[in-house]
Design brief:
The structure holds 2 protein chains of 2 kinds. Chain A is an alpha/beta fold. Chain A is built from 8 helices and 12 strands. Chain A has a single domain, classed as Rossmann fold (3-Layer(aba) Sandwich), CATH 3.40.50. In chain A, the strands form 3 sheets. Chain A has a 6-stranded mixed sheet with strand order 6-9-10-3-11-12, with helices on both faces. In chain A, strand 9, helix 6 and strand 10 form a beta-alpha-beta unit. Chain B is an alpha/beta fold. Helix content of chain B is 22%, strand content 37%. Chain B has a 10-stranded mixed sheet with strand order 2-1-5-8-10-12-14-16-18-20, with helices on one face. In chain B, strands 3, 4, 6, 7, 9, 11, 13, 15, 17 and 19 form a 10-stranded mixed sheet that branches. Chain B starts with a helix and ends in a 9-residue tail after the last helix. The mean pLDDT of chain B is 94. The chains are: A alpha/beta, B alpha/beta. Chains A and B meet through helix 2, strand 7 and helix 3 of A and helix 8 and helix 9 of B. Chain B: Pfam families: SUFBD_core, SufBD_N.
């Protein structure tokens, strides 16, 4: 599904990613962990196509196709979804209309007609139930005045609506209490299938109790320095990141 | 010959066409003298510091355009809000076009200024209201001097006018360049309600200069909802001078949508003569190329317990320039005044500019007055957020601009106008998405 080869990326001439290699197959859940400033969010943003970052070397392939040159919206149309660590507040645009526009623009790009209003409403109803979202909430402006938990639940609601092939969850657990964490994780688990893949970016192991990864990677100083199974997450939780840093510098 | 000289000498020719032995003509004669002394405003005047009329005064305008009446409704239908029943007062090159209009004298007067200025039955009203609040400066006096035609609307006490009134001034420009000076008088009596839509529309690319004066009187507890749709061709310029005199407990709202034209100057003035008055001015400006839009507003709080609300949004692309100069005067007697003013702007290009200046003169000590102006760029993180969900760059930008200006549309009470404005904006931004935000 996703293949990243020797990816180097920088922002304003500051190198952040320094040779990432990662392969994610359909049906898999990968966790990317690492200390603050290791490049986790940059990796997510670069895959999603944020233009401020410059890819200096290497490639990103989605289903065998090089997506380096594609705009963020084209990557979204191909099935990439990024759940933001800090979802942006957009006053004046309701969640419902945002999703309607997003889905219909995506359909337009594929040469399809707009989704019939009836189907759209049904989809919104079904997916909001999945995420235990009050539908009144959907007529509010995107993220405006939302609590941390509401913002993250709203991200996963958008993921449910857009049905991506590859979902990247950037620190989705931050700002969530245990109930919200459970709801968000349940939502992600229900959306998981053998045809899609999930990359979970997190600082802590706690989310991984609920969304169980097949692989865990440790990112440090712009490189994946260690990979393993889900037990690696437990080890990191128990021992912190210092031993990894030492291992790398040794 | 310069335009000023041409106009002054045209006044004599104009006098051949009107009754010079009337009190109205005394006002006109006084006004042409004022114009002769003051001329067109220059950038030396504080109020005109950021707007130069030089580029639009250089044309050789025809001051008395030929009567032109062969426009058919189907050709200009799109400039009407045609999906609602409305009274219509339509002019072509300054002359009344009866075949496009729908006027009335049945329970209210929706008719012509030329009739009001000449027929004896309107004399009392004209004596009471005509030129009572229009400014006595050069530009308004120029209009007063040539005042003859325009809309005359008189809504009697307690009358709620069920359908809106559309005033449209078409210019054909069949002669090279045309100058128009419509004069409107709107009297809304006690407890009456009316909605009015005004538009100026050029039909060719020949230069047009419109210098319009509208006097609006909202008497006790009257409600006036006024919409100005300014989406003219790039060859057309407009100087709009609107004066609203409000009596106690009246409510007047003016929405100004400025999307097209070469140069637009809106002089919008509210005078609050009574208690518990509410005055609202809102505007959306979206321009590009070398267009220029200048909003010059005044609210004069004269008596206690009144409110004013101003909310202007501007989006400026390419080399366009904008001005917002909002003056709020609160007299010493006007205690417990609530006056709010906001002007928010987005610059889409490095070459676009906006000069925004709030001007508060407060002489009372127990008031709430606030003002805020912002100038910014489109939020890049919001752009990435929208695009990451599959909304293309152009559509994402349009969505954000729409959201930015949306609260101005919130107070538009006629859904068809809201739809029309929405379509004009979408069209202007080059997108085809339904914004029912």
């Amino acid at each position: 599904m996703l293949k990243i080869n020797n990816l180097h990326a920088s922002i304003e001439d500051k190198a952040i990613l320094k040779g990432i290699n990662l392969e994610v197959k359909a049906g898999e859940v990968h966790a990317i962990m690492g200390p603050n400033g290791s490049g986790k969010s940059t990796l997510a943003a670069v895959i999603a196509g944020k233009e401020e970052y410059e890819v200096n070397e290497g490639s990103i392939e989605l289903e065998g196709e090089d997506i380096d040159e594609l705009a963020a919206e084209e990557r979204a149309h191909k099935g990439i979804f990024l759940s933001f660590q800090y979802p942006v507040e957009i006053p004046g645009v309701s969640v419902t209309n945002f999703m309607k526009t997003a889905i219909n623009e995506s359909r337009k790009a594929k040469g399809l007609e707009d989704m019939p209003a009836k189907d759209m409403l049904k989809m919104i109803r079904d997916k909001s139930e999945l995420l235990e979202i009050d539908r009144k909430f959907l007529s509010r402006s995107i993220n405006e005045g939302f609590s941390g938990g509401e913002k993250k639940r709203n991200e996963i609601f958008q993921m449910a609506m857009l049905e991506p092939k590859l979902a990247i969850l950037d620190e989705t657990d931050s700002g969530l209490d245990i109930d919200a964490l459970r709801i968000v994780a349940n939502g992600v688990n229900k959306l998981k299938s053998k045809d899609n893949a999930v990359i979970v970016i997190t600082h802590y192991q706690r989310l991984l109790d609920h969304i169980v990864p097949d692989f865990v990677h440790v990112l440090h100083n712009g490189k994946i320095v260690k990979s393993g199974g889900k037990e690696l997450a437990h080890e990191l939780e128990a021992k912190g990141y210092d031993w990894i840093k030492e291992e790398v510098s040794a | 010959m310069e335009l000023k000289e041409k106009l002054v000498s045209s006044f004599m020719a104009f006098e051949d066409t009107v009754d010079v032995h009337s009190s109205i003509h005394d006002i006109r004669t006084e006004a042409i003298k004022t114009f002769e002394e003051e001329g067109f405003p220059s950038k030396r005047l504080e109020d005109w510091k950021y707007t130069s009329l030089n580029s639009i005064l250089k044309h050789d305008y025809s001051v008395f355009p030929k009567h032109e009446n062969d426009i058919e409704f189907k050709d200009v239908k799109k400039y009407f809000i045609h999906d609602i029943d409305a009274y219509k007062i339509i002019f072509i090159d300054g002359k009344y076009a009866s075949h496009l209009s729908q006027t009335t004298h049945d329970g209210l007067d929706v008719c012509l200024m030329s009739a009001a200025l000449t027929k004896p039955k309107y004399k009392v009203i004209i004596d009471n209201y005509f030129n009572k609040i229009a400014a006595k400066n050069g530009i308004s006096s120029l209009n007063t001097a040539f005042s003859y035609e325009g809309a005359y609307i008189n809504i009697p006490k307690n009358k709620v006018v069920e359908k809106p009134i559309q005033i449209i001034h078409f210019s054909t420009g069949n002669e090279a360049a045309v100058m128009l000076q419509p004069r409107n008088l709107i009297v809304v009596n006690e407890n009456a309600h009316v909605q009015i839509i005004e538009r100026h529309q050029s039909l060719t690319d020949n230069p047009v200069l419109t210098n319009s004066v509208t006097e609006i009187f909202t008497n006790k507890r009257a409600i006036v909802d006024y919409y100005k749709i300014q989406n003219d061709r790039q060859s057309a310029s407009l100087i709009d001078n609107t004066f609203v005199n409000q009596k106690q407990e009246s409510l007047a709202k003016v929405h100004t949508f400025s999307f097209g034209g070469k140069l637009i100057r809106n002089n919008l003035n509210f005078y609050q003569n009574g208690e518990r008055i509410d005055s609202t001015m809102k505007g959306i400006t979206i321009i590009g190329d070398k267009q220029h839009v200048d909003h010059n507003t005044l609210v004069h709080h004269i008596e206690p317990n009144c409110e004013s609300h101003q909310d202007y949004k501007g989006i400026f692309d390419d080399n366009s320039t904008g001005v917002f100069n909002g003056k709020v005067v609160v007299e010493k007697e006007a205690q417990k005044t609530n006056a709010f003013q906001a002007n928010n702007n987005v610059l889409m290009s490095d070459k676009a500019s906006i000069n925004t200046k709030p001007q508060l003169e407060i002489f009372a000590d127990d008031v709430k007055c606030s003002h805020g102006c912002t100038i910014g760029q489109l939020d890049e993180s919001a752009m990435f957020y929208l695009r990451s969900r599959g909304i293309p760059e152009k559509e994402a930008r349009a969505l954000l601009m729409f959201a930015f200006s949306n609260n101005v549309l919130d107070s538009v009470k006629i859904p068809e106008i809201k739809n029309r404005i929405t379509k004009i904006i979408a069209n202007k931004l080059g997108v085809n998405i339904g914004f029912d935000l």
